[in-house]
Amino acid sequence: MRAINHLMISSIMMIGAPSLVFACPHLEWGTPKQSDLVICREGYALGYNYQLKAADWVAFKLEAQAAGAGVERKDQFAPDPDIPEEYQTTPEDYLEPIYQQGHLASSESIDTTASASRETFYMSNLVPQLPTHNKGIWKGLENRERKYANHRGVVYVYAGGLYQGELDYIGNQVPVPSHLWKVIFDPSTQKALTYIIDHEPLYTRDLDKYLESVDELELKAGIDLLDVLPPAQQSVIEAHPEPKQWVK
Question: What pLDDT score does 68 carry?
Fold first, then answer.
């Protein structure tokens, strides 16, 4: 794992020598990028980009859950108190007619406790997302990550946005991602499903069209996934994206 300048666990900041490894369960397989601020929370970790006013990446360990075991969802969107105010996004940024507040780390996947669920509604975990994308292909992929976790026991999920080409902005200069990406990694088989999805009105049936390799995602997003694996194993994962879904 690469050096982390500072890592926040919930509201507790830990500062130490660059070689110190922090026990964040969501970053067990490495930190995708040393962003401006790296935070480890109860249900997920994220690397926040001050310029984008958005997360470069989020990561979370997703374990099998009993049906109906989650807490009730409460849409309490709020600025992230751990982000410096000048780099925050707020619910007011979304007072426009086109985009929804789209989760990177899914609130339905991270709902084992009320506090973990509440933290998924921090604005740092959200990006402007088209309603059809949010409720269509992205929701379908969130459903599948839970299905995979229930089938395999545990998976690790990584997600973020890409910002390519001419971008739209909302509110106080919050950019709209051109693509959204997600990686679902199974540690038992050390295989990964990687998606780079155009930010357009799309549905779950389109998912297989957007399978990519880890290597391609890393190149486009400027991240380094699963970097605690030996290089030889990383190359196998990067070179062979799964041609079909794991679970039908």
Answer: 55
Residue 247 within any structural domain of the chain = no
DSSP 94-123: G-SSS-EEEESS-TTTS-SSHHHHHHTTBG
- Using CA atoms, how far residue 81 sits from 11, 39, 93, 131, in Å, is 9, 12, 16, 27
Tokens representing residue 84 in the block = 């410096």
User: For 205-248, how does the pLDDT look when each residue is reduced to its tens digit (9 = 90+)?
Assistant: 999 999 999 999 999 999 999 888 776 666 566 554 554 555 54
For residue 19, give the H/E element and its range: none
pTM score > 0.90 for this model? no
Q: Which residue bears the tokens 């509440």?
A: 118
Which residue in the block uniquely carries the two structure tokens 């409720």?
Answer: 135
Q: What is the CATH number of the domain that holds 47?
A: 3.40.570.10
| Residue 225 lies in domain | 25-239
* Amino acid at position 127, single letter: V
Give the Cα separation of 21 and 51 in Å (integer): 27
What is the rounded distance in angstroms from the CA atom of residue 234 to the CA atom of residue 83?
A: 32
- Is pLDDT above 70 for 66? no
